[in-house]
Design brief:
Rossmann fold; alpha/beta
């Protein structure tokens, strides 16, 4: 099965590089049937494998587009085009639902990687690495990538990431400190066997939000002069006032106070959650940016509206 999945990834990547536009996932499945030599029926395990192969192909294609671009702006524009070529990937399995395995859209991943100033010389920790979109600028030999999903773990190995961990990101920490932390952890709450929402200790307070727990845990691996970009769950709302009210809950205020007290947060802002619909989710995002980063300015100039939270951290 692994060899067949790799054949799909390579075939999808070739199509994407030629500019093929997948208007629906059915086109990708038909292509997969041609490559594999058998039919893929609804409910078949191969339905999800096709989605994952497409995600992997998008990341690999994105890297090729970046390599051949004359500037970061050209690369970003080309990645937006790649995002538009991508079909909606909405297949959910019990495992992906449990793990909240929503990947970062390729253009947002590139923006975040540039905000974090990840290069071939920086060491990086990614606590929920997925198919490696946020590591698109990184040197695989300098990355510590943690991923629970078996298929995505295998894809990272195929991509050359050899410091791979298969641990719980809420508790695991690398032994060595790194130059950069970048993360788009799963968001939401988890329940115990009695159906009660679990609470987790974060420094002086408690939270029910697992992305906050993973974020704080990952930041403990950051060098004193390191930088980080976090993509966290934002607050839903039809108006800025409505969203602002939700940010003033006791839990949210406690999280941000601890974050700002312990780290030098440069800025954060929202990006349209609709960009995540290609990945099977539409939850909005907030993005932290470095004030002199023109890419971030282009991305937030009113072109989008949303709720996931991007947080940019650099040394004091």
């Amino acid at each position: 099965m692994e060899n067949s999945r790799e054949l799909l990834v390579q075939d999808f990547a070739r199509s994407l590089l030629t500019g093929y536009d997948y208007s629906s996932i059915s086109q990708a499945r038909a292509q997969a049937e041609s490559v594999l030599g058998f039919s893929i029926r609804p409910g078949d395990a191969w339905v999800k494998i096709v989605d994952e192969a497409m995600e992997s192909a998008i990341v690999r294609t994105g890297q090729a587009l970046i390599t051949t671009s004359a500037s970061t702006h050209q690369a970003y524009d080309r990645l937006i085009g790649l995002l538009q070529q991508q079909p909606n990937l909405g297949v959910r399995t019990s495992t992906s639902i449990l793990q909240q395995a929503y990947s970062t859209p390729i253009a947002i991943a590139y923006l975040a990687a540039n905000l974090a100033q990840i290069s071939g010389e920086t060491s990086v920790y990614e606590p929920t690495a997925g198919n490696g979109a946020l590591l698109i600028n990184a040197n695989p030999r300098l990355v510590i990538a943690n991923e629970l999903n078996d298929d995505r773990f295998a894809e990272l190995g195929d991509r050359g990431f050899y410091q791979l961990m298969h641990e719980n990101a809420m508790t695991y920490r690398p032994q060595e400190k790194v130059d950069r932390v970048i993360a788009n952890p799963p968001f939401g709450t988890v329940r115990n066997i009695d159906g009660e929402v679990q609470k987790f200790r974060t420094y002086e307070t408690w939270t029910t939000q697992i992305d906050q727990v993973i974020a704080f845990n990952a930041l403990e691996s950051l060098k004193p002069d390191g930088k980080a970009v976090l993509i966290l769950g934002g607050k839903l709302g039809n108006t800025e006032e409505g969203r602002s009210t939700r940010y003033h809950s006791q839990e949210s205020r406690a999280f941000f106070k601890q974050l700002y007290d312990r780290y030098n947060v440069i800025d954060h802002f929202s990006i349209e959650g609709g960009l995540y619909r290609k990945q099977g989710a539409g939850f909005p995002i907030d993005l932290s940016k470095q004030t002199n980063c023109t890419l971030a300015t282009r991305f937030s100039a009113g072109q989008f509206f949303t709720t996931r939270l991007y947080i940019f951290i650099q040394p004091s």
